[in-house]
Amino acid sequence: MKKNELDKKNRLKKLEEAKELALIAEYDSAFEILDYLLKSDENDLDALRSKGNKLEMKALRMQNDISDEEVQVFFDEALKCYEKISKIDPDNILNLIDLGDHWSNKENFDIALPFYEKAIELLKKGEFTISHKDECEEAFFGKSELLREMGKEKEADQCKKEGVEFFPTSILLGGREE
């Protein structure tokens, strides 16, 4: 089945269904849907990103219930999804943020930081994948939290301040309500 055989509305419905299933920890069912979408189009960036996100979600939620090796398998599979997106679209801002989050979750802060920085650089140029505001919030918040984890409080505060300059109404970054 080719991508055009799976109409856009149906594809979005399937992505949303996978998201809802993952939120109630029905990961296997979510992965079945995402694998179905990827079988239709192996380069479906939304399905790849969603699968990577769900794999990380499963790893983080189950890390106290399964072995470290099993957790690592989920992280490794998520990274494969993100790396495939990078090969297809190296400036995909959501993927850059996901890579920053991935390496931050693994406490590899020096690897994570450049991903957030590249996402922010692209956002400053007005580029975005889906939502400029949401991606700015995610990138600036992710970078600021990472800097805080690294013990760089002043840089973290400056990063949030810079994010608020882009979106003064961002509650996530400490801005004011509209």
Task: Give the SSE layout.
Blueprint: H1 8-23, H2 27-40, H3 45-62, H4 68-88, H5 93-105, H6 109-124, H7 132-149, H8 153-166
Helix pairs in contact: 1-2, 1-3, 2-3, 3-4, 3-5, 4-5, 5-6, 5-7, 6-7, 7-8
Overview of this structure, please?
By secondary structure, this protein is mostly helical. It folds into two domains: 1-88, no CATH class; 91-178, Serine Threonine Protein Phosphatase 5, Tetratricopeptide repeat (Alpha Horseshoe), CATH 1.25.40. It has eight helices and no strands. It has helices spanning 8-23, 27-40, 45-62, 68-88, 93-105, 109-124, 132-149, 153-166. Helix 2 packs antiparallel against helix 3, helix 5 (93-105) packs antiparallel against helix 6 and helix 5 (93-105) packs parallel to helix 7. The N and C termini lie far apart (46 Å).
Q: Specify the biggest β-sheet.
A: none
Query: Uncertain regions: pLDDT < 50 for 5+ in a row?
Result: none
Give the averaged pLDDT, no decimals: 92
Shape: globular
Output the number of helix runs. 8
Strand content: under 5%
Radius of gyration: 17 Å
> Structural class, judged by helices and strands?
mainly alpha
H-E order: HHHHHHHH
The tally of domains stands at: 2
Specify the helix fraction band. over 70%
| Number of distinct beta strands | 0
N-C termini distance = 46 Å
